[in-house]
Design brief:
This protein is mostly helical and 230 residues long. 67% of the residues lie in helices and 3% in strands. Among the domains are: 91 residues, no CATH class; 36 residues, no CATH class. The chain is built from seven helices and two strands, in the order H-H-H-E-H-E-H-H-H. The radius of gyration is 63 Å and the shape is rod-shaped. This is Zn(2)-C6 fungal-type domain-containing protein. Keywords: Coiled coil.
């Protein structure tokens, strides 16, 4: 077995470089390619070549992550498998993991942008609400002052009305007594022979009594007639 491996190795050493077609078939189709035979030595050589022409993966595949391996991909992007999965001859989910992660990052950034926009709208609405509450408080305060003043004016009006009615009641109580006393004085003067159209100054009373007028006014005459008749 070892002799055959040595013999094949000597034949391989005559080739100047690894065929590009073999590299492409390995990266594109993986371990099983129809019509071609993949040997351990070919895999090792291709892995060695790819190792020198590879870059670290931004996101390791599941195998490399679990086994704490360095996950590397070829720098010409000829394969969807990392070097460790090429060496093992297994499928690789490195590209799929990175693609999924990129989609998640894009979705997260989109949600963060939407969150920021929603936050800005909340701040704007909060500011408008505060202004509305301030205007509402000012209007309610003004309404309260107006109603207090209106209440005081109404109370003052009621007080003045009550006072005015009391004054009228007093006058109504005084006037009959004054009128009765006036009639008594007129009758007394008549009994003394004082004429109705008396010139008060002719009695030596002075001019200050000229505004007294006739002895009987129409009201007094009617009242006195009633008194005399009575």
């Amino acid at each position: 077995m070892s002799g055959r491996v040595t013999k094949r190795s000597s034949k391989k050493s005559k080739k100047p470089i690894i065929p590009q077609e073999a590299i492409e078939n390995l990266f594109d189709s993986g371990d099983e390619v129809s019509g071609r035979r993949d040997t351990t030595e070919d895999r090792a050589s291709l892995h060695r070549f790819a190792t020198k022409n590879s870059l670290p993966a931004a996101m390791p595949c599941t195998y490399c992550f679990k086994n704490k391996k360095e996950c590397r991909f070829d720098d010409v992007e000829k394969s969807s498998r990392c070097l460790e999965c090429v060496r093992r001859g297994r499928s690789c989910d490195g590209v799929r993991v990175a693609s999924t992660l990129n989609r998640l990052v894009d979705q997260q950034e989109k949600l963060e942008a939407q969150e920021e926009e929603a936050g800005d709208k909340v701040l704007i609405l909060h500011k408008e609400l505060m202004e509305l509450q301030s205007s509402l408080a000012e209007a309610v305060s003004r309404l309260q002052r107006i109603r207090k003043i209106k209440k005081r004016v109404k109370e003052r009006g009621a007080e003045l009305f009550e006072r005015g009615m009391q004054e009228l009641d007093k006058e109504d109580n005084i006037l009959p007594a004054l009128q009765s006393h006036e009639e008594w004085v007129v009758n007394d003067l008549q009994s003394l022979g004082v004429p109705n159209d008396i010139d008060w100054a002719s009695l030596g009373l002075g001019d200050e009594f000229n505004d007294v007028g006739p002895l009987k006014s129409s009201g007094v005459g009617e009242s006195s007639s009633g008194v005399v008749g009575h």
